[in-house]
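Consider the tokenized backbone below.
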């Protein structure tokens, strides 16, 4: 191959790379715009910090999020991780349900910690003195009574 062919191949690879980067950027931007359209008052969301709440109002990039009755926080729209849908049945519906789940998980962990998983061995405890068993000695004296 000569230099011209190699140069053309390099420019073609570069052009493909630039095109794919530009295309994925457009797709990402369109997805972000579509997601912003779904952030309307009354939508249930989860933030990147794991806080669940209901959108009360949207003012540009600032969203007022109700996380408990009469408790509203202001977040930036980029802090929204996802919309909570009906398929997300795993999410707790109330603070009481979340606390009950957390308490049950803590009890399960504590019960697991209280179980003795040690394998009993016939080995001594640390610092315990053990007498070594010595093999029986054979007598070196010859039997004379035969």
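A designed sequence for it:
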């Amino acid at each position: 191959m000569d230099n011209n062919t190699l140069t053309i191949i390099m420019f073609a690879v570069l052009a493909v790379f630039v095109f794919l980067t530009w295309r994925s950027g457009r797709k990402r931007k369109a997805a972000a715009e579509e997601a912003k359209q779904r952030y309307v008052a009354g939508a249930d969301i989860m933030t990147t910090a794991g806080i669940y709440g209901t959108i009360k109002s949207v003012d540009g990039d600032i969203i007022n999020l109700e996380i408990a009755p009469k408790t509203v926080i202001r977040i930036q729209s980029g802090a929204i991780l996802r919309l909570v849908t009906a398929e997300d049945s795993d999410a707790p519906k109330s603070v009481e349900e979340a606390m009950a789940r957390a308490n049950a998980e803590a009890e399960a962990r504590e019960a697991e910690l209280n179980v003795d998983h040690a394998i009993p061995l016939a080995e001594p405890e640390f610092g315990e003195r053990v007498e070594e068993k010595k093999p029986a000695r054979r007598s070196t004296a010859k039997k004379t009574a035969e």
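The mean pLDDT is 83.
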